[in-house]
């Protein structure tokens, strides 16, 4: 099954000190054919920075799912999550590697479900113009990323498979300054269901902010 949707996303990191900081992302995702806002996701977290290439975050996520006007019912998922990020170079291009573990408390129309999931995410930002220094501070760029989701507990209550979904993303963006990026691109979301799979073709608009 194929779907077409749009996602609006905001990602923010805020340094509190040399070693600590806050994380926040908020996302609004449409249903198929932009029919209505299907998902609202709010995800705050607290970050500890080991150095400029490694950090760990613990946080909470609230996800609301609107089942549509015909059903007139909202379902809520609460998550606790932990992640570790390490940035490794590919030549002069930094590659962000993120490992995230989620404890999911999922509301359904019949009963509540607890499950755990692990996610691996890799992202590279490639400037179009050669940079005078190793630090990319302004200009247009290409963003490439992929993320795989694996169920590691109670998969039988979900799709009965270890593989949950994969997201591949290609975007064009512009770094306004060292603290702000704006980008738009195409995200291919492949979701494995119990009997059938769904491919969601997503147009995403995202704002990234980083304050020290």
Distinctive features:
globular; 11 strands; eleven-stranded mixed β-barrel; 212 residues; mainly beta
Q: Strand order of the main beta sheet, please?
A: 1-2-3-4-5-6-7-8-9-10-11
Q: How would you state the average pLDDT, rounded?
A: 94
Instruction: Report low-confidence residues grouped into runs of 5 or more.
Output: none
**Main β-sheet, in a few words?**
11 strands, mixed, barrel
Alpha-beta content class: mainly beta
Helix content estimate: under 10%
Helix count from the secondary structure assignment: 0
Rg, nearest Å: 18 Å
Order of helices and strands: EEEEEEEEEEE
Taking the alpha carbons of the first and last residues, their distance comes to: 44 Å
Give the number of DSSP strands: 11
Assess the beta-strand content as a share of residues: over 45%
Word description of this protein:
- By secondary structure, the protein is an all-beta fold.
- It is built from no helices and 11 strands.
- The mean pLDDT is 94.
Topology:
Elements: E1 2-15, E2 20-30, E3 37-49, E4 54-66, E5 74-90, E6 93-107, E7 112-127, E8 139-153, E9 163-177, E10 180-192, E11 197-211
Parallel strand pairs: 1-11
Antiparallel strand pairs: 1-2, 2-3, 3-4, 4-5, 5-6, 6-7, 7-8, 8-9, 9-10, 10-11
